[in-house]
Design brief:
Distance between the termini: 58 Å
Shape: elongated
Strand order of the largest sheet: 1-2
Radius of gyration: 21 Å
Number of strands: 2
Protein name: Ribbon-helix-helix domain-containing protein
Order of helices and strands: EEHHH
Structural class: alpha+beta
Organism: Rothia dentocariosa
Helix content: 55-70%
Number of helices: 3
Largest sheet: 2 strands, antiparallel
């Protein structure tokens, strides 16, 4: 069984920052750990979820971008270049 968590994310906009609710399911063990950490530190669970997302989201986003690009190259829908051809094109002789 999974626990539901409602998360309020900071959304960047021209207006003052607003929070938007996001609901997702999480492993019960993770939920227990979040609850325990929240209780021990007197901070809301959403504080830690936001901190984790801010810390790791860029990495996941980048990894999926790289995976997608690799699939495009393998399928012949995107070009790739060797480091030697790039050096030659740019006139780099190191």
């Amino acid at each position: 069984m999974r626990a539901n968590i409602i998360l309020y994310l900071e959304i960047m906009s021209a207006q003052p920052q607003t929070r938007k609710p996001v609901t997702f399911r999480v492993n019960p063990d993770i939920k227990k750990r979040l609850d325990r950490l929240s209780e021990q530190t007197n901070r809301p669970v959403s504080f830690y979820i936001n901190a984790i997302l801010e810390e790791y989201f860029d990495e996941y986003e980048h990894a999926y971008f790289i995976k997608s690009e690799a699939e495009e190259i393998r399928a012949g829908r995107a070009m790739s270049y060797s480091i030697n051809s790039v050096k030659t094109e740019l006139g780099i002789t190191v």
